[in-house]
């Protein structure tokens, strides 16, 4: 088994692969029905490669309602959810475009 | 099945218990200090010994120190470790507020194998170049004081003079090397020791009545063929480690039925957190990073991140053998196994092996604990500046494991001032961890008061100098920049993260 190295390289590796190949999406894993949007790669290290996280205090995104996810991401972006872990989410999503937000919400919501 | 590794672990424990390990450090007779030899506080031959101590005398502690590649037998076999004064851990320094610490330090390590290669900042390098940091000390970061920008090369000597203020908070501190690029290799080797500044909790009658133990927890890593020359064995967070207590593998710790002992515990490891349990015994926390909690707090488990210290009162209700354990736990996304750190043997109250004159504490303090008077609560209306720091990681091709750890998107740059503040400023900092692993952040020179973790207020408002920012979580603390101008650092105390970039410069100006 490959040992942990203080970080999750999988997400970054996916992002790099996409950049190098000049493509806009990639297969997250074989069980996914839809292609993962590139912007979702930054979510995977905490929320899990399939939206089901290893961290106990991070929410499961797998199968969540897409509209709820979209609203939540926008609330983090605009600082309407704030304090504690919402500050982490603000840093992660602050530069996402509207299209990215919709794509991420749809993909995690549709991966069940 | 008996394995070679198992045999070595057994023989190492036996060898160390028999005192046939490394020779004890010999003290220069000209030094202005007193020494206390390494010994069991209860006087039982196979009891865990406290590390040897060096005490200040008449306001001075003057001693010779060196770092050397020293032969040592770890549970995994014989190796060479970069350690202070041929001792694992290093000698405990015991000082009083207002004392002057004078260390004549010598780097006796061999030349760096990579001496001809250019140094690339945030890539581990030159493991035999070093310096000494006085972790948690509120002292000047300049010149020959707690100056972590010094580079003491093999063969060079340096005289440290560290002046403690007369109102310095009492507590548990420690010393270790802090030269950027070689910190993780040297601390993973075992280069560390406790430093105690006496007072405050020591004056609580129930604590003064108790036997005191110093427990330095370390998990040294050997090189593949002797001295560690690569970052690779240190880097995996879940690498198999053999944890040592005061240099011993699974030592015995004796305590009498009904007795309360005062343990000063230091996680001097380089990367792994240490949750601690002693099931069957009572544990009462009275201090974190040396500073008293408001009251004794009974607990079944508490966690020391790398760099943290705790004052623990441990009480033994019944005779028997108990285990001091690190339970299996998740350090962020890393699953780390249970570690059996020591056997705690509770003997009869009148065990004849313990002399009648030995201290026998029996009580846990029930009222408010005294405070370090200089550390008064920082209320919101005192704060002059708020800042945020985002902890992250990025890919950098050509760096070690193509990785650079970052604060606010940038790796460490010794030429850049990341924070410039005025002496006397009172600031509130929020640390935001965007990674799935916790990062214990340590700031030099000035301690801080923890306000909240993940937005939840810490009602104890503890004063600390190292705080674990949870995976995908936040910490807010407040701090006063007082007494000392100059540059120093804040960094992750998972030392491979520090060496690969998770550090900033703080410059305090007049």
TrEMBL record, chain B:
Cited PANTHER family: MULTI-COPPER OXIDASE (PTHR11709), MULTICOPPER OXIDASE (PTHR11709:SF518)
Q: Which terms does the record give in the GO molecular function aspect? A: copper ion binding; oxidoreductase activity; transferase activity
Q: Organism's domain of life?
A: Bacteria
- Start and end residues of each Plastocyanin-like domain: 118-198, 243-327, 398-508
Protein name, please? Phosphoenolpyruvate-protein phosphotransferase
Q: Does the keyword Magnesium apply?
A: no
Pfam families in UniProt: Cu-oxidase (PF00394), Cu-oxidase_2 (PF07731), Cu-oxidase_3 (PF07732)
Q: Keywords for this entry?
A: Metal-binding, Oxidoreductase, Pyruvate, Transferase
Q: Which InterPro entries match?
A: Cu-oxidase-like_N (IPR011707), Cu-oxidase_2nd (IPR001117), Cu-oxidase_C (IPR011706), Cu-oxidase_fam (IPR045087), Cu_oxidase_Cu_BS (IPR002355), Cupredoxin (IPR008972), TAT_signal (IPR006311), TAT_signal_bac_arc (IPR019546)
Q: Where does the chain cross the membrane?
A: none
């Amino acid at each position: 088994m490959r040992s942990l190295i203080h970080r999750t390289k999988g997400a970054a590796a996916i992002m790099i692969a996409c950049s190098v190949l000049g493509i806009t999406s990639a297969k997250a894993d074989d069980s996914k029905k839809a292609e993962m949007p590139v912007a979702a790669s930054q979510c995977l290290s905490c929320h899990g490669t399939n939206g089901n996280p290893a961290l106990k205090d991070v929410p499961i995104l797998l199968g969540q309602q897409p509209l709820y996810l979209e609203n939540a991401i926008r609330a983090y972006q605009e600082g309407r959810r704030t304090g504690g872990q919402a500050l982490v989410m603000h840093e992660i999503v602050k530069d996402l475009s509207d299209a990215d937000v919709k794509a991420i919400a749809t993909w995690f919501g549709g991966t069940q | 099945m008996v394995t070679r590794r198992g045999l070595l672990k057994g023989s190492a424990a036996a060898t160390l218990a028999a005192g046939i390990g490394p020779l004890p450090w010999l003290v220069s007779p000209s030094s202005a200090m007193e020494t206390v030899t390494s010994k069991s506080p209860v006087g039982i031959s196979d009891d865990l010994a406290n590390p040897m101590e060096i005490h200040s005398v008449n306001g001075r502690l003057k001693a010779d120190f060196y770092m050397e590649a020293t032969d040592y037998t770890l549970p995994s076999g014989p190796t060479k470790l970069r350690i202070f004064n041929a001792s694992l851990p290093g000698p405990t320094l015991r000082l009083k507020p207002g004392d002057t610490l004078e260390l004549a330090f010598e780097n006796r390590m061999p030349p760096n194998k990579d001496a001809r290669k250019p140094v690339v900042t945030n890539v581990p390098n030159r493991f035999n170049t070093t310096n000494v940091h006085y972790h948690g000390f509120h002292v000047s970061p300049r010149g020959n004081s707690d100056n972590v920008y010094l580079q003491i090369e093999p063969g060079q000597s340096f005289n440290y003079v560290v002046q403690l203020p007369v109102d310095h908070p009492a507590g548990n501190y420690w010393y270790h090397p802090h030269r950027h690029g070689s910190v993780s290799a040297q601390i993973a080797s075992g280069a560390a020791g406790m430093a105690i500044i006496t007072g405050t909790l020591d004056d609580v009658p129930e604590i003064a009545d108790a036997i005191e133990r110093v427990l330095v927890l370390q998990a040294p890593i050997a090189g593949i063929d002797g001295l560690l020359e690569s970052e690779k064995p240190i880097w995996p967070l879940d690498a198999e480690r053999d944890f040592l207590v005061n240099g011993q593998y699974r030592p015995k710790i004796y305590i009498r039925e009904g007795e309360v002992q005062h343990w000063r515990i230091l996680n001097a490891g380089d990367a792994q957190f240490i949750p601690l349990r002693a099931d069957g015994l009572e544990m009462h926390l009275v201090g974190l990073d040396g500073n008293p909690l408001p009251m004794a707090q009974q607990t079944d488990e508490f966690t020391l991140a790398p760099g943290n210290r705790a004052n623990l009162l441990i009480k033994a209700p019944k005779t028997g053998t108990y285990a001091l354990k690190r339970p299996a736990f998740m350090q962020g996304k890393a699953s780390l196994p249970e570690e059996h750190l020591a056997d705690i043997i509770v003997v009869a109250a009148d065990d004849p092996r313990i002399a009648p004159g030995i201290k026998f504490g029996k009580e846990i303090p029930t009222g408010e604990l005294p405070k370090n008077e200089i550390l008064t609560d920082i209320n919101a209306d005192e704060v002059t500046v708020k800042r945020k720091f985002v902890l992250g990681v990025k890919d950098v091709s050509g760096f070690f494991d193509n990785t650079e750890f970052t604060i606010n998107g940038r790796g460490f740059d010794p030429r850049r001032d990341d924070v410039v503040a005025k002496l006397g400023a009172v600031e509130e900092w929020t640390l935001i961890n965007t990674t799935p692993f916790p990062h214990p952040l340590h700031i030099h020179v000035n301690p801080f008061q923890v306000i909240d973790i993940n937005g939840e207020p810490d009602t104890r408002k503890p004063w600390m100098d190292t705080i674990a920012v949870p995976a995908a979580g936040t910490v807010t603390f407040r701090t006063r920049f007082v007494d000392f101008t100059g540059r120093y650092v804040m960094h992750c105390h998972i030392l491979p993260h520090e060496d690969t970039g998770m550090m900033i410069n703080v410059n305090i100006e007049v």
